[in-house]
What we know:
34% helix, globular, four-stranded antiparallel beta sheet
Amino acid sequence: MEQITLQAYAKINLTLDIIGRRTDGYHELDTVMQSVSLADTVQLTKMPGGGLSVRCDNAQLPQDKENIAYRAAMTYFETAHMPVQDVSIVIRKQIPSQAGLGGGSADAAATLIGLCTLFGSLPTETLLQAGASIGADVPFCLTGGCLRARGIGELLSPLPLLPECTILIAKPAVGMSTADAYAAYDRLPVGQPPYTNALIAALSGRNLQKIGAALDNVFAKTAPLPAVEAIRTTMHAAGAAGACMSGSGTAVFALFADEVAARRCAASLSGAQITLFICQPIHAGCIPIL
């Protein structure tokens, strides 16, 4: 095979707890993540004599060596004990940045899976460890579906998928870096109560209203933004089962039993410097396009 194209799917955090801090400075997480149908496209092509290159259609994002996909490729070749090969990686972005939707991690995961297809697979555990060395969300994006993630995101446990629903994602113009979100959390004198166990219990019951009521995110409490709260209020008023900020933000997602209600809510939010996506829960983090 000389070329492979993959869909690199976004994720939402149904809950996000911080339960401690490690001696190496990383925060210990306990979070439930779900893959959604919003996706970037990542194409990898063997290019003899062309070296390793990364290009992205979003000029605001790093190109070549500064892109996370480049780091993922270098990690693959190092892990596979292989000289760096001549590969062109082209990323077409749909997942917004500084949104808490894992767009960079999804691109890195797709790069790893694509290179495994082009040059040789790695054992699953080795691949997940390689992913964790690139970013905390990369192991989830390699696996996808609905998973509980602990540690720094590398300890994964399968959970039931969200029941059938329509997911509305709204990304306000304001962004927040992951570093800023953690810094805001670290300034708090005490931690926040955990949310994840209640969400897992609700998932087992398959009741969308109870799942919606259990959505929560520590960053929404520690770094509240007026734009995020305004979107959540609109979503609840439109009949969402629940609405919550994803990851370190600033995208907000809502779960709707009725697609018509989701689209009506999207229409009410349009035109306010908010980027909107209608999507569904899916089973995988990266899927080759045949």
